[in-house]
Amino acid sequence: YVLGAGESFGFGLDASFFHAFPFNIQSHIFTKLLPTTLAIGSGMFFYFGAAVFFGRRPMIKRPLVVALPLLLGFYWFVLVDSNQAMRALFSQPIFLLFYSLGAPEFFLCSKPGLRFSTLFLGSAAGLICVVFVYRICTLPFMASPAAIMDSVLPHIIIFAISIWRALVLTFGLLTLINQRQLLETRETNAALLRARDEAADLQRDLLAEPAHRQRQYLIRDLHDGVGGVTANLALLASLGQAEGMNSEQKALLS
Fold first, then answer.
1. What is the per-residue DSSP string for 82-122?
2. Which residue, of 15, 26, 85, 143, has the fewest CB within 10 Å?
3. Are 218 and 149 a contacting pair, CB within 8 Å?
4. 195-200: long-range contacts at Cβ-Cβ below 8 A with a sequence spacing of 24 or more?
């Protein structure tokens, strides 16, 4: 935009300079369609990325069914009917759609280690939605349609919120990634400690197994020995009561 409006900004750029480009630098494709489409794409991936980050499946068909007709309408009022107010009515709801879907994804996260970054990002997305609602409700209904760089309040606010959005979302997302990495490291260390304790318990059980087995053998041998002696005593006692034995044998067995 600055290149295309170089003369009006006092840069002293020669108009023939722009004719050297193989494309028209002031084309609606470069000044309106491409930037807005990329910005809408960033809002879409903000929602999709948030859902996938927290392990949830994002809705795809329904948001696209709503967004695609609005995007086509925006293209129409850029290429066919140049109407700034209608462009805002068709483009801003797409931003509002994806950021309003992305904000709850952060608020739904309940992990204690991620609460700061998730609340921060959810609140930032909510504030962005408020700005889009303000622009939808003001820009199309101004007394005179405002060009893209006119110094009107809706343009100033959306310009400021665009810079603020880039800084805040970058900070919030980096904080979220760092917090999740710390949380995963903590959980991994806890799992390793549990595994080590379980291995130590298993080792103690393995070391105690031979001693336990030896005790069982000793008890069994002792039981068998006592049983044999008892059986022999019972046999001798029964023989002592048998008939046909002389008195000496009975006395001995008794």
1. --HHHHHHHHHHHHHHHHHHHHHHHHT---GGGHHHHHHHH
2. 143
3. no
4. none
Q: ∠38-43-44 over CA atoms, to 5°?
A: 95
SS3 66: helix
- The pLDDT tens digits for 205-243 are 777 777 777 777 767 766 666 666 776 777 777 766 666
CA atoms within 13 A on the CB side of 212: 6
For 187-206, b/e burial (b = at least 16 CB within 10 A) is eeeeeeeeeeeeeeeeeeee
The pLDDT of residue 6? 47
Note the helical H segments in the chain: 15-19, 28, 34-53, 61-79, 84-107, 115-138, 153-240, 247-253
State phi, psi for 90 to the nearest 5 degrees: -95, -30
User: Would the CA dihedral through 216, 218, 221, 227 be positive or negative?
Assistant: negative
**Residue 101 pLDDT greater than 90, yes or no:** yes
